[in-house]
Protein 1
Amino acid sequence: MDALEAIQTRRSVRKYEKKEINDEIVEKLLSAAMSAPSAVNQQSWEFIVIKDREMLDAIPTFSPFARMAAHAPLGILICGDTRNLIAPGFWVQDCSAATQNLLIAAHALGLGAVWTGVYPMDPMDRRVIGFTKHCQLPEGVVPLAFVAVGYPAETPPKQNRFDPRRIHTNVW
Amino acid sequence: MDALEAIQTRRSVRKYEKKEINDEIVEKLLSAAMSAPSAVNQQSWEFIVIKDREMLDAIPTFSPFARMAAHAPLGILICGDTRNLIAPGFWVQDCSAATQNLLIAAHALGLGAVWTGVYPMDPMDRRVIGFTKHCQLPEGVVPLAFVAVGYPAETPPKQNRFDPRRIHTNVW
């Protein structure tokens, strides 16, 4: 799929066919994610690839906006490893760029995906605690976002978000 | 250009030909940026399109890592409008996803671009003050990143950042 078309036509997909995603495709998604730029090339991202059915089914019990996980063949938890950063303030941007790459790659490969936010919720929020315990994250590894992925069983309508009011020339 | 290829082969480009970028191309870049997902679709992004030569030339005086601005035909300052957010904590992720879309689109269109970070530097940092004054940003509009864009006058080598050590299956 053409790059501009992939960017323009990507939508959040929350319903999936009952069809597994093979490891080669998963590797392509993660390779796309890791191709993102990062501050001083620190590559602060880590990826938990969740294919275990019971683990995916349990996610909605602590993350109400990730109900689709129970019907997805694949979930990817994007985390920032904040333990040894060169540019500490920038890990959120590094990981967000990686997540966006992953979403575009999924769409280009004929998959559907949706980004559900975790960080910067309160560390005591049940989503943060839930993902941390569920995936046995070490201290300092922070869950940024959970992305559910599958072969799409819905086709959200096209949407043109272009808004000229958000463009300013030279000055605000 | 194919979407996966664009994602994989995009690199930071800091040297540009002396060639203007027409408005149609600028609109394609911004349309790609605004196609990003955002928390509760809040679209917290705003874009300052800088083509004024004197303004671009002055950027390195307050932003030492944006020296290439003085040789770029175009700069885009991506800002978050934090004044009326539905999901306040998520504007950095919204704007980072938009910035990444912009970088991929630039590469796919035969341009070169580089992301230089601003947020979350100290509000008293000269880069934050510099961009805020330079572009006359209202209070509550926060500069996240400055992206310089141009027709590439350098070809950074391909880089494969895929690192299997960053992949964890089900649990860390």
Protein 2
Amino acid sequence: MIKVGIVGGTGYTGVELLRLLAAHPGVELTAITSRKEDGLPVADMFPSLRGRVDLAFSAPDKADLTQCDVVFFATPHGVAMAQAPALLAAGVKVIDLAADFRLKDRAAFEKWYKIEHTAADLIEEAVYGLPELNREDIKGARLIANPGCYPTTMQLGFVPLLKAGMIDAGSLIADAKSGVSGAGRKAEIGTLFSEASDNFKAYGVAGHRHTPETSAQLQRFTEQKVGLIFTPHLVPMIRGMHATLYARLTKEVTDEQLQALFEETYKDSPFVDVMPFGSHPETRSTRGSNMLRLALHRPDGGNTVVILVVQDNLVKGASGQAVQCMNLMFGLEETTGLQQIALLP
Amino acid sequence: MIKVGIVGGTGYTGVELLRLLAAHPGVELTAITSRKEDGLPVADMFPSLRGRVDLAFSAPDKADLTQCDVVFFATPHGVAMAQAPALLAAGVKVIDLAADFRLKDRAAFEKWYKIEHTAADLIEEAVYGLPELNREDIKGARLIANPGCYPTTMQLGFVPLLKAGMIDAGSLIADAKSGVSGAGRKAEIGTLFSEASDNFKAYGVAGHRHTPETSAQLQRFTEQKVGLIFTPHLVPMIRGMHATLYARLTKEVTDEQLQALFEETYKDSPFVDVMPFGSHPETRSTRGSNMLRLALHRPDGGNTVVILVVQDNLVKGASGQAVQCMNLMFGLEETTGLQQIALLP
Amino acid sequence: MIKVGIVGGTGYTGVELLRLLAAHPGVELTAITSRKEDGLPVADMFPSLRGRVDLAFSAPDKADLTQCDVVFFATPHGVAMAQAPALLAAGVKVIDLAADFRLKDRAAFEKWYKIEHTAADLIEEAVYGLPELNREDIKGARLIANPGCYPTTMQLGFVPLLKAGMIDAGSLIADAKSGVSGAGRKAEIGTLFSEASDNFKAYGVAGHRHTPETSAQLQRFTEQKVGLIFTPHLVPMIRGMHATLYARLTKEVTDEQLQALFEETYKDSPFVDVMPFGSHPETRSTRGSNMLRLALHRPDGGNTVVILVVQDNLVKGASGQAVQCMNLMFGLEETTGLQQIALLP
Amino acid sequence: MIKVGIVGGTGYTGVELLRLLAAHPGVELTAITSRKEDGLPVADMFPSLRGRVDLAFSAPDKADLTQCDVVFFATPHGVAMAQAPALLAAGVKVIDLAADFRLKDRAAFEKWYKIEHTAADLIEEAVYGLPELNREDIKGARLIANPGCYPTTMQLGFVPLLKAGMIDAGSLIADAKSGVSGAGRKAEIGTLFSEASDNFKAYGVAGHRHTPETSAQLQRFTEQKVGLIFTPHLVPMIRGMHATLYARLTKEVTDEQLQALFEETYKDSPFVDVMPFGSHPETRSTRGSNMLRLALHRPDGGNTVVILVVQDNLVKGASGQAVQCMNLMFGLEETTGLQQIALLP
């Protein structure tokens, strides 16, 4: 059994990790830390876990995380970089669900996250935890930078076309929509029920941290300079993410060729479902599951291709993807413990 | 024109007062205070008011509220009692949307609200602002204690039967359900979208501040000792309140007599709609309006009468009722500025 | 492997059966029928099942259900009674999620469901499928009448008190609230998003089919004549049911004794979670899981006991309970395939 | 008083017309027709209108609509074209909220709506009822084709830039999101609460009827061939529409110049609110009101301009706009009866 520790289990990615790991057949939950909730049984905070998780939160200094085989950081940015060096030195693998190791460009990190990077020597080693694009590297990694939820949808949608050199990398548009849980479990007025429900809005249009992360990753697959307009929106639903991606085709290509390209790209990826050409994937078809579904469109048969991508932002967009990485790192079947069928309705 | 001041306009009852008063033909909005938002145009916080409210928030010490004819307190408990004495002395009328003057029993107030009452001499003078039961007193009042949202539904449902001596006052049950806006515009985890949506729960079952307020008011209408079980619940909707009231009939009475009793009681109350016997009022039929609708049921023709009551908790349950009181206090038609039709769908 | 057939898989209880059974380790999905959707792959209607359920719907006359070990009826009332006799004769067990065999009183059935009962000789044999109260009978049953969602919450809340003779059976009140999926997957105006969302209402107050079912079952546990007022309401959420139960205590009893009574009653029931006295269970703590959670309250220490009960109406209130019965009927562990942790948030 | 008739008042645009017209000071509601609901009081179907609308539905053959000054068609496509000729001949003005007269190209109409146009001679006369672009024509019109909800947002967002020749008309992208009420009050599975809530999806990506309507209108303002990709999405909210518009700048222009262009364009349009550059308008800021709000963005200062546009799809996107046209046609102040402040929260 893999001994697992979680740092910062009081947020949504934390409780989602607990839901997945408590039912994972190869895992033993060993420790979960929270500075504020020391001593509180996890199931008192999240009654959905009553009878399934016996652990109590423990203060960071009391929990001996070095006895774990792997530690997940479900924390705000900045925590993993402080603790990862010691854990790695003790032979513990680290999966960071925050942004600390997502950007290879340290200066870009410090600009967008407005904190100094204190473990810069680990940035290069960290593997970007998107299994569909980096599966082999993840298998051998000690330190995983788990992708953000938006970047996952954008990359899995754009990359096949970029790699195939079929689109203009300089004029990508990603109009993306996220459920409110993406904002985390923080007491803030903007995400109150009475503010966010029965409402729709864009946010961060002038610049969002996920743009540099995504652009840098996309750049790996093309020699053309990537130009990406990313517009995030807030949807009055708890879970779910929908990206509507627009790209300009630069080659003559048939609908069938486009479809075949995606099916071929993801034929060995159990968590990417390429739906029939012209489908309209719904976020709820992934609710609570680790599946990402996508479908291709070509309005009026013109030279714009539209890729519709959906996932559950807390699963494939966060905690499920982290468990998927863990499976690969420890030689388990990629799908172990991640076979939950989406909850519909 | 009535010069109106608002203390504490950054919450939901505050913005609702602004919505109603900005369109009220007999009112001039004169000042609105907020300690934190001094100088901020109201419409910057609430874009729904752009072009309709030009006022900016001003710090309490800068706003000269004594130039107003009436001041509304849309504040947490404790603020009105501190400022009301000076305003009243200056000839300004006061309408408190909080609880400071709702309980005639000072000890009960201090027990339930856990603050000392610093204007105890005004408690007796304060008029409980439920126009359907206290219309004449309100007309002559200087100081109004605007009822809570739950107590309004409970009183307007139970009082006709209590006054008629038809029910057992000792075994009243009120199972009530409120939209989330009732919890106010405060940054709290429990009312986040991701916590409160797609969910339903009871709260405060062991004891809620609205129980003593309601019991004391109901007691005015019966000599029997009132016994009230009140169970509030949180509904995943923004606005709306539904009370399901249960009472035991102690007299032989027909359905027609019950219906006639309610129709007669409210025949001169423009904001109480007695629906046909056996109807199922919906909260949305009152959304954004000052109407309260109710309907009577008698399951299996037995001796339990069920009264279903709906209202918009922010209008008839708070700000609309406060404006209704203001209209009466200043000799205006009771319905002035309160004729909005509910938004359906 | 148990060969399973499903009649009527296009509704919500049908797709929920599919979600549970597709992941059940002891089951082989063999046939699913639909008159209208003959030939359509199930996963085309419910994309959440893509890659997990390969079956297509088949017309009732084409599907040979007699090859199954058990057939679930996720149909409107009246279908199971028509097909059950032949299936039982062929040695197939039957679990009916509709009402055909819930009422032992044939006349009551025909009055409330307004159809003639065509398999009246099976009514007596049918076992009411509430494992917590009828576990042994279910183990030996050929024909299960799976309880309605409301009756499950009401019985599991009231029965311990009734059996203990602690409450007045003649004045029970059940104020219950259901998510909209309880109304089924039928094209109707009343359950459109634009009608049911941001709204709350009672319905069927004058009389609901679940009242006679519940009363008859409760009557088994007391000699006093049961009197039950049941008021259902519609909550703007997809899944979830909350019952607020009121009963009058007729004996001197402490809170601790009440709590102990419930804990003792359900100590061997893996799907009933008796929460600490005074808790407020949330429906979302059961979302997608087969758990039912309840908690006791005693407002002001008086003689009214309030029992709060929550469950997922599609799981413990329907399809999960049916699978739980199947497990018992086939000698499997009661929890097999039903260990999903609730989806929170 | 203007005598008003409504044909087809049982849908959402119908009840919204009733809400607005019942409170309109210059209007007398004279007749409302419904084939199916003959004799039913309107307020029985829509309790929000109890006490405010006394009219009953009448069958089309019983209602003498020729006595009206103006008749609104809140009907499916095809009804207005059948009845408009006789009404116009009788001197009655007609405002059609459906598509019958929106497309000047009869062949395009018949292709997209799949019905023959039976009043083709009126197509040319019909005035497209978008006051901000056609105010003078509307004043003199007998027959108004009220724009669709999506086209309103797209036109008011793109037209200032097109007219100024600042953008590439051939590569416009409109990623639009609508509340569910846009689908109408029809019993359909896809818009049930349990299907549409907690979910997000695109629809009609391959081709939507609003594309040719919008393209044709936009073409009036540019000599370049308009190329428009329009992607509609369904948002789990009742009312509200958000369009995220992308256009490529073809001229050197500063942010200030862009902002000034929009402010100048709409300075005499009381229902278009140009928010400060970089704002994120929320749909709820227009809920129940006739305001449309928009804001400009320019990500990374590049050559893509993003225009965010919000409105209430049932008001400015349908019934409010129709009343706005009526006001202009009858010489009333444009804002008469349309001064409702948005309901927030």
